Amino acid sequence: MATVSMTVNGKHVSADVEPRTLLVQFLREHLRLTGTHVGCDTSQCGACVVHLDGRAVKSCTTLALTCDGAEVVTIEGLAKDGRLHPMQEAFRDNHGLQCGFCTPGMIMSAIDIVRRKGHDLDEHTIREELEGNICRCTGYHNIVRAVAAGAQAMKGGEPLKKAAE
Amino acid sequence: MSATGIGAAVRRKEDQRFITGKGQYTDDINRPGQAYAYFLRSPHAHATIKKIDAKAALAMPGVIAVLTGDDLAADKIGGLICGWMIHSKDGSPMKAGPHPALAQGKVRYVGDHVAVVVAESLAQAKDAAEAVKVDYAELKAVVDPAAAQKNGAPQVHDVSSDNTVYQWHLGDKAATDAAFKQAKHVTRLDLVNNRLIPNAIEPRAAIGEYDPGTDAYTLYTTSQNPHVARLVLSAFVGIAPEHKLRVIAPDVGGGFGSKIFIYAEETVCTWAAKKVGRPVKWTAERSESFLADAHGRDHVTRAELALDDRGRILGLRVKTIANLGAYLSTFASSVPTYLYAPLLSGQYDIPAIYCEVDGVYTNTAPVDAYRGAGRPEATFVVERLVEVAAREMGLDPAALRKRNYIKKFPHQTPVIMNYDIGNYHASLDKALELADYQNFAKRKRESARRGRLRGIGFSSYIEACGIAPSQAVGSLGAGVGLWESAEVRVNPTGSVEILTGSHSHGQGHETTFAQLVSDRLGIPIEHVTVIHGDTDKVQFGMGTYGSRSGAVGMAAIAKAIDKVIAKGKKVAAHVLEASEGDIEFKDGKFTVAGTDKALGFGDVALQAYIAHKFSGQDLEPGLKEGAFYDPTNFTFPAGMHICEVEVDPQTGVTTIERWTAVDDFGTVINPMIVEGQVHGGVAQGIGQALLEGARYDENGQLVTASFMDYCMPRAGDLPSFTVGMTTTPCPSNPLGIKGCGEAGAIAAPAAVINAITDAVGHEDVAMPATPQVVWRACQKAAQRMAAE
Q1: Residue A161 pLDDT exceeds 50
Q2: Smallest CA–CA separation between A130 and chain B, in Å?
Q3: Rounded to two decimals, what is the model's pTM?
Q4: Given CB atoms, is A74 within the 8 Å cutoff of chain B?
Q5: Beta strands in B104-237 (DSSP E)
Q6: Are residues A24 and A60 in the same domain?
């Protein structure tokens, strides 16, 4: 066992873990943050994507111990003061999800795409950049639209106008 | 149309939890004191088990138990079942071998379940599984179904010496042979419908739990139909009586058919929970999903189409060998038979059809329903034949289709189905317009200037959905009825809970079902909650597959709503001191006809519960109604998908340039959700046509067992889709719904291959049409042109 400490969604956490513990296991099993999912065992599907010191990583292939002292944000940490992140709103508003299982990873990756590529994303760029995230439900059509809309909405740092419900 | 009623693109109610990470999938659930299961799987495709020695494993840290097929037998736990009896041409019943949840004496495919290790942690269970010594005597394996039928082939099950489960047929052989004698043109194709692996992104999972205080079990599992799972596990497998087994299917991350079936893992976890006295949790790793989830498709077909000199179809003859894998999965027998051959008439008026299907055991994973289930295979046969026939006869493929479309409804096909309604010309015309077909030649020339080959492919698909009229399927061998149930619980404050036997695993039922209720009862959609997926809450239900939840599940809800309104009128009559016959219900109000005396829906709900204004003896208090809805016919969604591709002849790379879908789904509750279903279905169909293919080597090793080796469609592989609709409301259910879940997967493969073959000028393009396959086709076409 070894001790690992990190900040997860703004809270300091510390635990004794087996050295082989993966970041995703630490999040799901130790912290019970089950919004981060595991969809494969070869680091392909991207359901497990979280932000580690501001960058998207696949938490299924990151050892928890290597995150000592790091700042981790998961899907649960995106909304602030009950207001959804614009990318979360964009996925709902554009029907960018069906079963919802790949969605947390998609949203975390999408925010990282905006960080790296800016707010004005064309369809080709979005499709290429989503290479590490697999969705079996949507055919990506609405995910692509959601990412484009979310990127625009992130310009002002303001959440999207709430969808008519 | 109200903002939240039928036809409105309402944003989904369920999304809040999914976009915030608050969904609750089976693996997100943890039960107090749970132990972890790990399945030791066969590394061999075919072997007898001489001995299993678990002594060393049992001595390892944290190990609670190692259980095998002998333990199952000792507890008199039965095998898994196939719920659809198919009879061969000679009248004999299908030959189904035993299907124990843990192997008993023999393993029959790589991934077959040999033993389960239960331990304090998953890591300990996995470590211990490596210490279980299994003494196998390897046998020769067979993976190709045609080879499996030959003399001397390895025998998968004792019950069938030539591995043939059934030799089934449908249609009129003599009439079909006669049609071919009259034909002026015959188109012949040899087709392979490639084996697919469903790969819902949530892997299957199960938690079994046993409460000795009540002698009752609970199973949390990734199921599309929890009640059917409970029925099978109690009535056939015999784990617990039905009333002592609760099955909960919480949020489920995609199914596509693969989560219909009752598998070994949930069976073993439930049974083991009592044996070890702890909840037992198992979650599949992706490699296990590849190995042991039921696969889809896997047909080898010879198909022939007879036409007259003007391109009128006279007859269709089909011979298919269907690979069923090593065991018959829950509905495996029905997929290449009754879900396949009855759709071979397509959208066409075909006088004579004859289809023969051999279902065959091999040493591969079981094959069962996967999105479309039989209907994609039928559409691929029909639409490839029609397209090739048009090319061979020098006719425009759209014109040849139009010449043969069914124009009058109802239409009785020669293969069971009675199509109730449709307008195939309308969807073709609209698709041609949306696809800008008239300028295709111009685009083709432009591609040619860049050294690229452009092609266009059509697919006029049809499917039988709204599964299914119970009497009809019963007469065809189904072991269950396929109605659906619903309960509408109105609370005293006027809010409503809908309990449905349908199960949502991405389809958005919590929204669409609430839209129906909001529309019918005139109450805000926020006042409606949809409850599903728990056998303790919902009385019974058949679940979600076969695009049935709208046409059958919602029809049951509509029927129960009608009963609620009828009861509400009785209550309102008492309160308003009017006769029941004078009460009208509209826009959420019960009104005395011709007056302004009215009560809101919520007022009537309250009055029904307080029962102050009527005698509780004459009229029962409360407002809660249930309904079982059994459809009168299948529904027949149909449409036209047009695929336009560009092929680079130097590399064989195919790019989908345009996708146009025009579908007739009857009434649409939520167009946003319906379009999403089309997108997803088309993506899976394009995946089948271009990217996906499960491959076993000759020893039965699955060589495509990870996302590194099995090519899943990614965002960069797909185009944006143009989706249009035409509407003929279905007359066979009260809402006019036909169903939309499978259409894309059914239509797409033929459209893609028709487009590629058009582009390259060579018909022999197998799925998946990888760059290598397409490049070879380009070479053959070039050689042929050089020879000519």
Answers
A1: no
A2: 6
A3: 0.97
A4: yes
A5: 106-107, 113-119, 133-138, 164-171, 185-193, 205-211, 216-221
A6: yes
